[in-house]
Every structure is written in C-alpha cells, then in structure tokens.
Amino acid sequence: MKKHVFFALLMTLVSTQAARAGVQLGATRVIYPEQEKSVSVSVMNGSGDRPYLVQASVKDMDLKRSDAFEVLPPLFRLETKGNYELRIIKTATPLPKDRESLNWLSVQGIASSDGVSMAPESTVPSAAQGNVSMGVGLNIKLIYRPSGLVMRWHDGMAALKVTRTPRGLHLANPSPYYMSFVSVEAGMKKVMGSDARKRELMLAPFASEDIDVDGVSPEAKVKWRVVNDYGAVDTFTGTVS
C-alpha cells in the first residue's frame, strides 16, 4: 500500500511538470464505468510555437504497460494550439468485479526544436536526428468501476472508519472505491493536508493506513475531504472510535 501511495505522489508531481511544458489533458482523472464501450479524454497543445509528437498508453500500478486497456491513437501529431481526442478501450483482460481497479493514463509529449520530423508514422525522434525537447509526461488516474458495486460512491466515501492507535490514528476504507484524500482533520488537528507531514494519501478499496499523530482525544470529530469523479472536492464528517 505504501508503495502505491508513493506512486500516486510521484505521478502527480510529474504531471504538474508536464503541464508547464505545453501538453495538457482535459481531465484530472478518468472514470471508466464497466458498461461503457470506451471513454474519451482530450489532449491539448498549450504551446504557441511548436507541435508535439504525443504517445499515449495505460500503465498499471507497477508502471508497466497494462493489458487491460488500449489507447487510440497510441501515437499522433498534436499541432500548435490544437487538440485531440484519445479513446480508451477496455480489452478482454479480466479485472476484479467487487472493487475499482486503478491504472494510469500516461501521455508523453516530444517537441521538435530543430527540424526533427514529427510525422506520426515515424519513430520517436532521437538526438541523432536533431535537437529535441522532451516533456516529462502527463500521468492521471484511470479508475475502472465495475457495475453493481455494493454501495454508491458517496456512501463509500462517507464510510471511512477512523480509530485511535497507540501512535495516532488508523484509517480504514471498507468500501469498493478508491479514496483520494485532500485533507483529514481530527479534533482541532490537521493530520493530513497542505500543512501536515503527510501531504496526500490514497486508500485502495478495503485497505487501511496508520497515521502518526499526537493529541487526538477519544470521540473527537473527524473531517475528511476527498476528490470526486470530476476533480472537485467533497467533505465528509465522522467521529474517532
């Protein structure tokens, strides 16, 4: 679990750097409902002076290419100030039916700076062909959501269980959904968030995490803020048990 939390932080940082390079995505996350044949994501070129050669793929939590999804087109030219629609298609590779599955949509942009061919049918340019400027890449969460889960998303987020431990708090996710926290407050203490030691936490379905924090009293009020399907933030409250 800690390994996957680290990847979530790393991918968020990489995506922020890439957005500054010119290639941008029209979403901060992608939800793929099981009943859909495909889902789409827009890719935009915010650069005013150069096209990009863009390569797109889906990676699993170990950052290896996922067999569960196909991205079309996998390689294309993105014109200056242009935009393109990526289609993500679920393959026949099975995924769990009782919980969400997390992958990463990875979009890499390479900009020509000295006459390098940017034709989509060509291979990715190399330094031997001319000077190129390579963006770090955009990586956003791709969450596959099976039909018929035991509870709705909102009910799942509200179901977080917070209990005291000798060293702080234990957060347990009893739902089939991924929880992406913006902050968690217990009593008057922020135990996770922009000014706390642990800046971000993602709890997988049916997973848990221990948070080191002092001074949380029994039955303290808890408030947690999570990112919803649209990239906005929803707030929930409860009590430490």
Automatic annotation (TrEMBL):
Record's keyword terms, sorted: Chaperone, Immunoglobulin domain, Periplasm, Signal
Signal peptide: 1-21
Domain Pili assembly chaperone C-terminal: 172-234
Domain Pili assembly chaperone N-terminal, chain residue ranges per copy: 22-149
Highest taxon of source: Bacteria
Keyword flag rRNA-binding: no
Location relative to the cell: Periplasm
Key word Signal present: yes
InterPro entries linked to this entry: Ig-like_fold (IPR013783), PapD-like_sf (IPR008962), Periplasmic_pilus_chap (IPR050643), Pili_assmbl_chap_C_dom_sf (IPR036316), Pili_assmbl_chaperone_bac (IPR001829), Pili_assmbl_chaperone_C (IPR016148), Pili_assmbl_chaperone_N (IPR016147)
Family affiliation: Belongs to the periplasmic pilus chaperone family.
Protein name stated in the entry: Molecular chaperone
Organism expressing this protein natively: Lelliottia aquatilis
Lineage per the UniProt record: Bacteria, Pseudomonadati, Pseudomonadota, Gammaproteobacteria, Enterobacterales
